[in-house]
Amino acid sequence: MKKREKVNFSRLPFTKKDKKGTILVENIIFIILNMIFLIVLILFLVRQGSGAIVLEETYAKQIAMIADASQPIMLIKMDMSKGKEISDNNKIDFNKIISIDGNIVSVRLSGDEGYEYAFFNDVDVGHYPEIDDITGEYTGMYIFTINKKVEVAE
Amino acid sequence: MGKEYKINKNGTDKILSMYWFVLLTLIAGGVFAMVYVFYGAPYDIREVESALLVEKIADCISERGTIDSEFFAADSGELNANIGEDFIKKCFLNFEVEKGYTENEIQYFYEVEFYTIKNTEASILSFNGGNTNLREDCFIKKENDKEYTSLAKCTQNGLYALDSEGNQYLIKILSAIDKSEKNVK
């Protein structure tokens, strides 16, 4: 059988070694724009999930459900560290993000009005943020005390 | 004739990148829209609330399987027909609602029915409270249709309990929570 001739690929036109490598400005701009696009998209998704408005509603409804499910003489701890981060960024004291007026819970993490939600259990709900004994700073936890409502004689 | 036409390869590249950005914009638009729809819709907790209301009422009526003596008339020992009048106060319920609702727009409803164990068809005592208009919402067949999401969410549950003499009763509790403004978009 006849032996096949060896092919020298370096001589073929598509592997020209003498071709100058050029950086195309258009391609770089294209890649940069794509990256900016993706970063903006990812940031948007991350911020939407942990935004003040979403958390205000979540916390208000969680506290209302805690109050509804509880019975007098209970102490309940709730992790609100994500809310602490947002209230710190918005320069709102962590101590003042929750207010409970009668049976209406209000949570405010930004400069806006906040979010209100009512619970039906007629109990006295007290609340205060937990403070670290050593550092004296807020731990990010909130403590809720459930007690029987005391009727004040007028 | 014989004129050669050179293909402008650079031109096709530019057109391709333009389409690429159009495609990206469409994808981004879709993602933005989906995220807004997802996070823009409030969390619907009414089913949990109505179940909690039923539990609260059940705990108020019966403690460890025995019906509270206040539910019986002191003289006859029969079920007290007037118990429904003061039920909200007796069971520590508060139906006040937040700003945005008027005072007449009560967002809660409950109904309690007592049956003897011999006849679970006809109730011997029945009373309700809250917004009675919400009762009808509980009996409308909801087949995951979007139109029905704004209707009140209901929970119905029953329990067996004894009186002080050991007579057995079936107690059916129905609760409904509206609050559609805060739970449905």
Task: Write up what this structure looks like.
- The complex is a heterodimer of chains A (154) and B (185).
- Chain A is of the alpha+beta class and 154 residues long.
- Chain A has helices at 25-49, 52-69, 81-89, and strands spanning 74-79, 98-101, 104-107, 115-118, 123-131, 138-148.
- Chain A has two domains: 21-50; 52-148, no CATH class.
- Chain A contains three helices and six strands; from the N terminus they run ααβαβββββ.
- In chain A, a hairpin with a 6-residue loop joins strand 5 (123-131) and strand 6.
- Helices cover 30% and strands 21% of the residues of chain B.
- Chain B has one domain (43-183).
- At the A-B interface, helix 1, helix 2 and strand 4 of A face helix 1 and helix 2 of B.
Largest sheet of chain B: 4 strands, antiparallel
Task: State the end-to-end CA separation of chain A.
Answer: 117 Å
Q: Estimate nothing, just give the exact number of structural domains of chain A.
A: 2
Radius of gyration of chain B: 29 Å
Lateral strand order in the biggest sheet of chain A: 1-6-5
> What's the total helix number of chain A?
3
In quaternary terms, these chains amount to heterodimer
Class by SSE composition of chain A: alpha+beta
Overall outline of chain A: elongated
Helix content of chain A: 25-40%
Largest protein interface? Answer: A-B, 33 and 32 residues
Biggest sheet of chain A, open or closed, and with what strands and sense? 3 strands, antiparallel
Instruction: Assign a percent range to the helix content of chain B.
Output: 25-40%
Mean pLDDT of chain A: 85
Question: Which series of helices and strands of chain B comes N to C?
Answer: HHEEHEEEEH
Average pLDDT taken over every residue of chain B? 85
| Major β-sheet strand ordering of chain B | 4-3-6-5
Total of helices of chain B: 4
